[in-house]
Amino acid sequence: MKEGSRANALLVELLLVIFFFMISAAILVRVYGDAKLKSRTAHATNYSMIEAQNVAEDLYAAENPEEKLAEYGFTAEGDGWSLQKDGYLLKVTVREEETASGVLRTYDVSGVEITHNESGEKKENILLTLPSTRFIPKEVSP
Amino acid sequence: MSKSKPAGSHSPRIIQSVFVLLLLSLFACLSTFLVTMGAQIYRNTVESAEDNSNSRIMTAVVRSAIWAEDGGEVQIERFDELGITALSIVNEYDGEKYYKRLYCAIDPDPLDGEPRSFLWESYNSEEAEFKVEGGESLCELKGFEPSIEGKTLKVELESPNGTKSTIRIALRAGGAEE
Questions:
Q1: Does B16 contact A11 at a Cβ distance shorter than 8 Å?
Q2: Which residues, at least 6 apart from B122, have a Cβ–Cβ distance to it below 8 Å?
Q3: For the complex shown, is ipTM > 0.90?
């Protein structure tokens, strides 16, 4: 009888320990998941920043920016261009401003992280936007 | 006179002991798995953070060094006897040419004395002879390969842990020649 109650106490103690262990494990797994997600976002932000700077610089220097974007592998999408990279998306949109002496054309290069929410819907998170502006003077008649 | 126990009376206790042992082994397995998984995720996170910071530092250092002197003429110089390819920006002051050079060379680490590859920056007048040790080491870097494509300067960089990055810079004020 004494031996049996000692074994039962050990069993209850063990089950309690496992129960608390399971709760801690569930919390830890969630924390690990968050850490991994944050690390992935940091990686995407960093590399999209480097790549966006390269694209912005190339667009600034290029004679024909659209041709340069095609060289990079960008595809036309709606009112801009997009390029899927490892873990992030690069998007380029154009806006123009008319001035008295010409047109101010700005290419906005954005790094976008694509995530999925709990219901599985795609969500776009803009990490950064770098503008690259060119001035195109109006042709002056002689 | 003691009574002898029936042969089957030990079996519930054996089952209980086996159950406790099974629970213990399950507990041990799960805790090992959790610790291993945590260690793996921690290592990946630290490696990724290191990789990010290395690539960010090396690209930022090179970009800012070039932008700081972009008014000058950009050249790629090859010093075959030293085995160095340098990115040089030439500026002229009071009729004398000054060279700002960025290059990759090996230097003993200030902390442990081990030879390591660093990115160097030197600033000399045209008359002064170029010496590797005449510059200043900026950050640890394994590879530095500059090239010029039209109006764009392209630099391929390799971080100490082997991550490769390419930076492209439009040369604004000065010209460029290989």
A1: yes
A2: B99, B100, B101, B103, B130, B131, B134, B135, B136
A3: no
